[in-house]
Amino acid sequence: MGGKNGISDPRFIIKHADDPEYSLLTRVSDGQLLFLANMLSKMKRDTPLGSRIAEVHNGSSLFTGDAGQGESNIRRWVIESDWLEAIVALPLNMFYNTGIATYIWVLTNRKPAHRQGSVQLIDATGWYTPIGKNLGQKNCELAPSDIRRVCDAFLSFEETEESKILPNAALGYHKVVVNRPLRLPGINPERAYYSPAEIRKLRQKTAPAPESPPVISRIHRGSRAPAPLPGRFQAVIAGRPAIVEYAADPGLRDTEQMPLLCEGGIAGFLRREVLPYAPDAWHDPASVKTGYEISFTRHFYRPQPLRPLAEIRADIMALERETEGLLGTIVGE
């Protein structure tokens, strides 16, 4: 069996985080992280020094792939295994005939104690030496002094404007499906259960309406407690209290992305960011996926100071003087 779905190479189909089959397969148009996974499969694991790997990647390796997809799975596998030591952002126009951003990934399976559980991001985009004559788009290089500066930042392992040290989990996030109940005119709000087929027929006859009661899709028997966040709500059916689940409205379904280090976890995020605006919302625990991405822009963002109003006003007045009489010329006055 050929193609991506037919690949069973153990380097790319692994077990991780209790998932029985954890795929590291990436899209066929970008194999950078697949190459990295191949190199990681060759690391020495039975020697005191282990292995250290350094690879040059473009920016897509930092963020391509949604939670649960191959690229994100590789980042998750690498970071949760605590193999990623540092990523160095290189200056632009470093390579012949391309101006894309490039990064050095540094990995090891023998992290020193002071680096364990963390990743260092180094912004070396401003550390370069211009070359005398451009070679295609290449207009700079790393001189020995620039290389020393990068090495010093790596070895010192300190927080500076160009060096950020983050816990591994700061690079991860949860992706969660958030549902809201399907509300249809004409339903019986005390009916204990509507089957999927009945719901489909009702939806063919009428459109959802926010003022209508929610459609019940399941009722829990016994003494199960209500839990609104995962979708078990308290209701009254035929005058008796009950715990029910509602049918989800596909048109109101949304996804939320929240940091792994979010205060209060998924429940805390939903209470702060979702329930104030949609009190009847719940999340599907089975939908939760974990992803990892690395954003240099977020961690090295430096806001530019706003221009003074007097300076902006002076520019506007100057433009008005330059264009004075231009409208009259256009309309023939």
Task: Note down, in words, how this protein is organized.
With 333 residues, the protein is α+β, with helices and mostly antiparallel strands. The chain has 2 domains: 4-171, 3-Layer(aba) Sandwich (Rossmann fold); 174-287, no CATH class. It is 24% helix and 26% strand. It has helices at residues 32-41, 60-63, 70-80, 144-156, 196-205, 265-273, 296-299, 309-322, 326-331; strands at 13-16, 19-23, 52-58, 84-89, 102-108, 118-123, 129-135, 138-141, 163-167, 172-179, 216-220, 233-237, 240-246, 254-259, 282-283, 289-292. The termini are far apart. 22% of the residues are buried.
Mind telling me the C-alpha Rg? 28 Å
The CATH homologous superfamily of the largest domain is called Vaccinia Virus protein VP39
Distance from N terminus to C terminus (CA atoms, Å) equals 77 Å
Main β-sheet, spatial strand arrangement = 3-5-4-6-9
* Estimated helix fraction: 10-25%
- What's the level 1 CATH class of the largest domain? Alpha Beta
SSE blueprint:
Layout: E1 13-16, E2 19-23, H1 32-41, E3 52-58, H2 60-63, H3 70-80, E4 84-89, E5 102-108, E6 118-123, E7 129-135, E8 138-141, H4 144-156, E9 163-167, E10 172-179, H5 196-205, E11 216-220, E12 233-237, E13 240-246, E14 254-259, H6 265-273, E15 282-283, E16 289-292, H7 296-299, H8 309-322, H9 326-331
Parallel strand pairs: 4-6
Antiparallel strand pairs: 1-2, 3-5, 4-5, 6-9, 7-8, 10-14, 10-15, 10-16, 11-13, 12-13
What is the structure about, briefly put?
The chain has 333 residues and is an alpha+beta fold. It has helices at residues 32-41, 60-63, 70-80, 144-156, 196-205, 265-273, 296-299, 309-322, 326-331; strands at residues 13-16, 19-23, 52-58, 84-89, 102-108, 118-123, 129-135, 138-141, 163-167, 172-179, 216-220, 233-237, 240-246, 254-259, 282-283, 289-292. It has 2 domains: 4-171, Vaccinia Virus protein VP39 (Rossmann fold, 3-Layer(aba) Sandwich), CATH 3.40.50.150; 174-287, no CATH class.
